[in-house]
Amino acid sequence: MNFKLNHQIDQIHSDTVIVGIDIAKHNHIARVVDDRGKELAKPLVFANTQQGFQQLLFWMKSIMKKHAKQQVLFGAACRQSLFS
After folding, report:
1. Going by C-beta distance under 8 Å and a sequence separation of 6 or more, which residues neighbour residue 68?
2. Contact, 17 vs 40, CB < 8 A?
3. Which intervals hold domain Transposase IS110-like N-terminal (predicted)?
């Protein structure tokens, strides 16, 4: 394994959720799993708009609260959209 992959793996703990997003032009689909790969909620379909990304954040916060998780890992492209 390379250093970058090892670094990413080291960031995942039992209090972490990982979000994978299938990116599309108009609507995205997000899935969330725990550190063992167990799906924690049904997939979320959300619009490629500011309101859609707000919906994603609300969804993530509710899942994290329900499952007592403290950390979330998003892909780089998604982080840019959420926090720009």
Report:
1. 15
2. yes
3. 19-73
The confidence score (pLDDT) of residue 50 equals 94
Check: CB of residue 73 under 8 Å from CB of residue 19: yes
CATH architecture, domain 3-83: 2-Layer Sandwich (3.30)
DSSP state letter for 31: E
Q: At 82, is the pLDDT very low, low, confident or very high (cuts 50, 70, 90)? A: low
List, in order, residues 6 or more apart from 40 with CB less than 8 Å away. Answer: 17, 32, 33, 34, 63, 66, 67
pTM of the model: 0.75
Domain edges within the chain: 3-83
